[in-house]
UniProtKB/TrEMBL annotation, chain A:
Subcellular location field: Endomembrane system
A cellular component term, taken from the record's GO annotations: endomembrane system
Family label: Belongs to the adaptor complexes medium subunit family.
Disordered: region residues: 154-191, 490-515
Taxonomic path: Eukaryota, Fungi, Dikarya, Ascomycota, Pezizomycotina
Protein name: Adaptor protein complex 3 Mu3A
UniProtKB/TrEMBL annotation, chain B:
Clathrin/coatomer adaptor adaptin-like N-terminal domain boundaries: 41-648
Pfam family, one: Adaptin_N
Designated name of the protein: ARM repeat-containing protein
Compositional bias of kind Basic and acidic residues: 583-599, 709-721
Species of origin: Paraphaeosphaeria sporulosa
InterPro entries hit by this protein: AP3_beta, AP_beta, ARM-like, ARM-type_fold, Clathrin/coatomer_adapt-like_N
Keyword field contains Membrane: yes
Length: 578, 830
């Protein structure tokens, strides 16, 4: 019944990096890899291999181009193993620094070996908390010096050197217990997710709220679904055992906006239940995901608005930085398509007026409306809540596989650069920040939004190519009888095709051509961008306080530095159909 | 284009990546130049007196062991093992790693190290003790099983929970090494199951599941404490516990239902009133849980305790835990509980693609049972262009599952969605197919309006230029019609009308087949003959598949004609072919058919009776004539077969059998129906029947509900707090260790007041902690949650006390050591 039998890691060229066997006699990595690769892409995360001995369930994840495989000969909970694999990559990243690179693992096999040994004991997952692992495994030296620079303790906890005091009892769970308690965890702190003896020279804490947009727009522009997936990343660099209280606010009430939250185990669930929006927790040391949530931007009444009788403008209002609309089957032959990008002028940012790169604040209640970000972002001037800025605008237009090329790709007013990528069979239209700014500057007054258009014309594979496709065997691929004749009777082909060309001039032939070209039309377009300093849900941090009474080890009167950053991301998240 | 590829999109831009890569590549190159040390030099490093050198050597050996086969690193075995006694923890750890990897190859040499490891079991550093225990149990050399067992025994009584956890995890390893140690191990295990520390209990449950998942009798005394600890365990402990609890719940709490709701009796006295039910029956009652039906499931209070404890886990960040809770609710709880888990299940769709995939399978599984609950979450099931096939396939299935339960508006939205993908799915032919099939499944709803709408939608596809779409649409239409032919007469007519629009030969062929199939439905008012008439006109221009079907249609129409108008006398119909054959360019004279003599024999009685044959007969003959000169031999052959079959109008039995055989009604259930039997959260659910019917190896179905009266006495669970059960007692005595004695001694004084009946020191240890703290507090006092720990420790300043406890700890440690020393002596004597 052991769940984790072995772990194999391969680099981007599929050369084995690491093989760790935990229990049993699983097939070796060299046996499994070809079988894994033999599976057609995209490969699911769980593949059943009946031909190995014993028949194996192969779990896989790919992280930073590294491939992690985990065989299992028994029926276990798949998510348990997949979660474990993710924790492995998290831990490796935590210790070796991200992104996870093959060379990093190769340079620190000793650390990796210790980590893997601690994480699984005899096939049973035993410990995956990064902080708890830090208590028992030394981070590699270069990381130590690196972390020392940012304020992490440069010395390891004393418990790691046996010559020192054998127990680091700084944080006994309940000091009153005395030895009769039987419970003290000498190396581990009372909080399983927090390292013992955390010391920082400068105390800092940062909240990053990242919301990922998932918006689907119908061809008419009406939103079908609009979900923002939020993640609160927290970075705590605070000495002792701090007890923090983070208050989130949102226009209209946090309880109405935020749904389906998930929390790091450190969050006191009852507190959230009693007072939504308040997160009370003892954080782990370092960066971690505090919570995840989801916001339905349309609201629950969205469905009622979706009906054929309601005019399009009565559709729920959606405040999205950028949307696209696609028109297909344009032009005389119906082979053209047009993509219109609409930018919300609100998000132009203020690149002209440089703000201080970081806005610092301290003390209670210091977090408010005008508080900036940039503490993480570095030098960017724009991207504060006052002037949210759009970045990295890319529009993808996936095209059917039959499209050979796209000609006459032209973006209006030189906005951005569009290319057809045959390998992925899509058009990629990227608009850089300067061009966005220029567009925004042009349309200052209208208020209707900023427009940019891209026009292109698809060229499908010619007919004979089409017949080589997999569907040819079905005899289904031909569209007309003439066409079929082309195939069966070769000598007639010339005549038939000329007939067809003649027909193009007439209305009938045109319609047929349009119909044929319709197959090559894009069916959707997606927009990717990031906006700093703005969240679609309107969630914001009201306050972040250290509970001085409950906290320990943080000197009296020490006010940690606090920073908040908001980021809205769309990774092909805004999708318009056509 | 896997979503996980984008996971770190924003965090690490491509430029960062390349920079990092370049730097690291430089680093790695620098290292590799020094990495290739000759083995002699490496041995020298390992033998060195300097700790730093040894460490360096070990690092290299460990690195080698990952990159090269064991044969390369085995020569260093003795050199490495020599360092096992090193005082440096760093060195020790690396030696242990090496040992675990290589012990099997050199069992004899590995045994030499056992003594040193054993000594480490009494080290002052709990981390080292735990490590030693882990390594000792991990060396796969069966000879040492007894030693390992003793090590576990010591670990079970250790003061550090870290060591106790290692002991718990060592138990299944020891069992694998030597199954004869089972009795002792069970004792240790039952002690650990009652451990106060959350993560120790979690590990103990995991060990329990590994070693003896069926010994539920060990669980009874700890059931309640385990349930209470559930929320504070680490996620892996929660997983193990929930897996255990589903089994335990099914085997220990008989399902009861009640007619009228009565106040719950806390004790089992009133339990015989209800009727017992297995899950299947219970699900029936669940469905009918409307106000008018009073039958509701009555939950045992202990079971309710578990179900309520699970609520907190629904917000776990670990997707496996969420699924495990859903499984608990599904198989143990009531629909009310299940509805709590729906939202959290949906929230799993936020996660990385690989997890999302598995989560979707589980969502579908729940949705098959409770489609109603998922209707409001429809936005999550809309397919996105970035979804890979294995994701959208499941999403489409979910959309169709909720379709019958959705409001009309949502139904139109779903249909619009599906038709979008069926039109634009030229991106992926598979998506087209799946979308069209989904429309077909949607049309199976009871509402005839919706059904008609779906059908209309499908019919619009027939004229499309997308061959996949047309073929699949017709396939689905055919299924729909075949399933309910009587209601689809008009559909056939409509389909026939679409013959004008349909261009693809395959599509035409399908339509013609359908028309032929229903040619006999309504004899007086059937279009088949008319369709045939029209088709025959353009026969020469049809493609071969369509031609084949036209011939078949003609044959069917003719058979129906013969059946409907049987020749008045046996001889009569036989003459029919005769005149018509003469009418049609006397093709009988060709004489190429085997059946010629037969028809020849027939016309004798009255050859010239009818001048003009029935139009159908004429059509049939015309078709036969046309096909006779077709270029395709296949068509010619078939026509010949049909002709032979139908040559004698009086005997159409064989033709009826061949041409009008009833076709089996195609079944198109939801694709996941086949997996319905598999347990939520199992790998078999994801793999399906591919893994063999009945699940993969190690698959375990949820046990059936225990029958009323056969369940274990609930008192077993009750009584553990006041008086230990005998078995537990025995375990307690046996596993008594120095540390426990110490605990007992320390706890004895304060506990004396409030604690009676705790005769054995083993159980005193179990309860001692609480008593030590709270003096005369009742034995019922629960374990404190983490929050309580924190709050209490926060109430007072701890610095001075820390030192105090530090000293105490140390002194106790010495005692332990001396105790253990004597223990070791014992063993040596043995």
């Amino acid at each position: 019944m052991s769940s984790i039998e072995a772990l194999y890691i391969f680099d981007e060229h599929n050369t084995p990096l690491l093989e760790q066997t935990y229990t049993g006699r699983p097939p070796s990595g060299s046996t499994l890899l070809p079988l894994y690769l033999a599976h057609p892409t995209p490969r699911p995360s769980l593949i059943y291999l009946p031909n190995t001995n014993p028949p194996t369930l192969l779990y896989s994840i790919i992280q930073d181009q590294l491939l992690l495989l985990c065989p299992s000969s028994n029926d276990t909970e798949p998510l348990q193993i997949l979660e474990f694999l993710h924790r492995v990559t998290d831990a490796l990243e935590d210790f070796l620094g991200g992104p996870l690179l093959a060379s990093r693992i190769e340079a620190h096999y000793d650390v990796v070996a210790q980590l893997l040994g601690e994480m699984v004991d005899g096939g049973v997952v035993s410990c995956t908390e990064p902080n708890a692992l830090k208590d028992v495994v030394d981070a590699p030296n270069f990381m130590k010096s690196l972390l020392g620079g940012v304020g992490l303790p440069s010395t390891t906890p004393s418990s790691l050197t046996p010559s020192n005091a054998p127990f680091s009892l700084g944080n006994r769970p309940s000091p009153r217990l005395g030895p009769s308690g039987g419970a003290p965890a000498p190396t581990a702190s009372p909080v399983p997710w927090r390292r013992a003896n955390v010391r920082h020279t400068s105390n800092e804490m940062y909240v990053d709220i990242v919301e990922t947009l998932h918006v689907t727009l119908s061809p008419s522009g009406r939103p079908l679904a609009a979900i923002a997936n939020g993640m609160i990343a927290f970075t705590a660099k605070i000495s002792g055992v701090p007890d923090l209280l983070l208050q989130l606010g949102c226009p209209g009430g946090i309880a109405n906006a935020v749904s389906l939250p998930t929390f790091h185990p450190c969050v006191r669930l009852n507190r959230w239940k009693d007072r939504p929006g308040e997160l009370s927790f003892v954080p782990p040391d370092g960066r971690f995901t505090l919570a995840g949530y989801e916001v339905d931007l349309l609201g629950s009444a969205a469905l009622d608005a979706f009906s054929t009788t309601t005019p399009a403008n009565a559709a729920p209002k959606l405040n999205i930085p950028a949307t696209v609309s696609v028109q297909t089957s344009l032009g005389p032959a119906g082979s053209d398509f047009e993509v219109r990008l609409t930018l919300n002028p609100r998000f132009k940012g203020k690149s002209s007026s440089p703000l201080p790169s970081t806005t610092s604040f301290s003390g209670r209640g210091g977090l408010g409306k005008g508080l900036g970000s940039g503490a993480f972002g570095g030098s960017s001037a724009a991207g504060t809540t006052a002037a949210p800025a759009m970045d990295g605008m890319v529009i993808h237009i996936p095209l059917p596989a039959g499209v050979k090329s796209v000609v006459e790709l032209k973006a209006s007013r030189g906005a951005g650069e569009a290319v057809f990528q045959p390998a992925d069979s899509r058009v990629r239209w990227a608009i850089n920040n300067r061009e966005i700014a220029a567009l925004m500057a042009n349309d200052r007054g209208t208020g209707a939004g900023v427009l940019a258009t891209l026009r292109g014309s698809v060229v499908g594979h010619d007919e004979h190519d089409g017949h080589d496709g997999p569907d040819a065997s079905l005899g289904l691929s031909s569209n007309t009888y003439d066409y079929d004749d082309d195939q069966t009777a070769g000598y007639q082909a010339a005549a038939a095709s000329s007939r067809k060309e003649d027909g193009n001039g007439g209305g009938n032939g045109n319609g047929e051509l349009k119909k044929k070209n319709k197959v090559f039309m894009p069916s959707c377009a997606t927009v990717s961008f990031t906006v700093k300093g703005w969240l679609p849900s309107g969630v914001k941090v009201e306050s972040l306080n250290v509970d001085q009474k409950k906290s320990k080890g943080l000197g009296a009167g020490v006010q940690p530095y606090k920073g908040v950053k908001y980021l809205c991301v769309s990774r092909k998240g805004v999708e318009t159909r056509c | 284009m896997h979503p996980s590829n984008f996971a770190h999109w924003s965090l690490s831009t491509a430029r960062d990546l390349t920079l990092e890569a370049a730097r690291d590549a430089a680093n790695a190159r620098g290292k590799t130049s020094t990495k290739m040390l000759p083995s002699g030099q490496l041995k020298k490093l390992l033998d060195s007196r300097s700790e730093r050198d040894v460490l360096e050597g070990l690092r290299r050996v460990v690195t080698m062991s990952y990159r090269q086969p064991p044969s390369q690193t085995l020569p260093f075995f003795t050199h490495v093992i020599k360092n096992i006694a090193s005082p440096s923890l760093q060195v020790k750890k690396l030696v242990y790693i090496y040992l675990l990897q290589h012990a099997e190859h050199e069992p004899d040499t590995a045994l030499l190290s056992i003594n040193t490891i054993q000594r480490s079991l009494t080290d002052q550093n709990p981390q080292l003790r735990a490590l030693a225990l882990r390594v000792m149990s991990g060396i796969r050399v069966p000879v040492i099983s007894q030693i390992v067992s003793l090590g576990i025994k010591r670990g079970v009584g250790d003061m550090s929970p870290y060591v106790r956890k290692a002991a718990a995890l060592a138990i299944p390893k020891c069992y694998q090494l030597d199954p004869n140690t089972e009795p002792q191990l069970l004792d240790y295990l039952s002690t650990l199951l009652g451990d106060k520390q959350f993560f120790v209990a979690g590990a103990a449950v995991a060990a329990f599941l590994e070693m003896c998942p069926n010994r539920l009798d060990l669980i009874h005394p700890h059931y309640r404490s385990l349930v209470r600890k559930l929320a504070d365990m680490d996620e892996w402990g929660q997983l193990a516990t929930l897996r255990l609890m589903v089994k335990y719940g099914r085997k220990c709490f008989p399902r009861r239902t009640r007619k009228i709701k009565k106040p719950l009796d806390m004790n089992s006295g009133a339990k015989h009133k209800g009727t017992k039910g297995f899950y299947e029956e219970e699900s029936d009652s669940e469905e009918s849980e409307e106000p008018e039906y009073e039958e509701i499931a009555v939950l045992d209070p202990d079971l309710e305790l578990l179900l309520n404890a699970c609520k907190l886990l629904l917000q776990s960040r670990n997707s496996a835990v969420v699924i495990a809770v859903a499984r608990t609710y599904l198989y143990l709880g009531t629909p009310t509980y299940m509805s709590l888990a729906i939202g959290p299940l949906i929230s799993l769709l936020r996660t990385a693609g690989d997890i999302q995939h598995v989560a979707l399978y589980n969502i579908v599984q729940v949705c098959l049972l409770y489609p109603q609950s998922f209707v409001n979450h429809y936005t999550h099931f809309l397919v996105r262009s970035t979804d890979p096939p294995h994701i959208w396939r499941l999403k489409l299935e979910l959309l169709t599952l909720i379709f019958p339960h959705a409001a009309p508006r949502l139904q139109s939205l779903v249909l619009a969605e599906l038709s979008h993908f069926s039109h634009s799915g030229s991106l992926d032919p598979g998506l087209v197919k799946e979308a069209v099939r989904a429309i077909g499944r949607c049309s199976q709803t009871t509402d005839p309006k919706t059904s008609a709408r779906c059908l209309r939608l499908l019919l619009t596809h027939i004229g499309s230029a997308d061959a996949h779409l047309v073929a699949e649409s017709l396939e689905v239409i055919r299924h729909l019609i075949q399933r309910d032919p009587d209601n689809h007469r008009t559909t056939v007519v409509r389909l026939a009308k679409h013959l004008d629009a349909a261009t693809s030969p395959q599509a035409r062929a399908s339509i013609i087949w359908l028309v032929g199939e229903f040619a006999g439905l309504d004899p007086d008012n059937n279009i088949a003959a008319d369709v045939l008439r029209i088709l025959v006109k353009g026969f020469a221009d049809e493609a071969e598949p369509a031609k084949l079907q036209i011939v078949l249609l003609a044959a069917k129409v003719y058979v129906h004609h013969l059946n409907a108008n049987p020749p008045p006398e046996p001889a009569k119909p036989v003459e029919q072919p005769q005149p018509r054959s003469s009418l049609l360019d006397d093709f009988h004279e060709e004489g190429g058919f085997r059946d010629e003599p037969k028809s020849e024999a027939a016309p004798q009685p009255a050859p010239q009776e009818r001048e003009k044959p029935h139009p159908i007969v004429a059509l049939w003959d015309y078709i036969l004539l046309l096909t006779r000169y077709d270029t395709s031999y296949d068509i010619r052959d078939r026509a010949r077969v049909y002709k032979a079959l139908l040559a004698t109008p009086t005997s159409t039995q064989l033709a009826n059998l061949l041409l009008l055989a009833p076709k089996p009604v195609p079944q198109t259930p939801s694709p996941s129906e086949t997996r319905k039997g598999y347990v939520l959260g199992s790998a078999s659910l994801v793999i399906g029947d591919e893994g063999g019917v009945g699940g993969l190896r190690g698959y375990e179905d949820v046990p059936a509900w225990v029958k009323e009266g056969q369940e274990p006495d609930p008192a077993l669970r009750d009584e553990v707090r006041s008086t230990s059960t005998p078995s537990y007692d025995a375990g307690g005595v046996k596993t008594l260790s120095a540390a426990e004695k110490l605990d007992a001694a320390a706890g004895a004084a304060p506990s004396a007041a409030g604690w009676d009946g705790m005769g054995t020191s083993g159980s005193a240890w179990a309860g001692g902690k609480d008593n030590g703290v709270h003096g005369a507090s009742a034995p019922k006092k629960e374990e404190k949650s983490l929050d309580q720990w924190l709050e209490e420790s926060g109430e007072e300043e701890t610095d001075s006390e820390e030192e105090e406890t530090d000293e105490e700890e140390e002194s106790s440690e010495y005692e332990t050591e001396s105790e253990e020393g004597s223990d070791e002596g014992d063993r040596l004597v043995k």
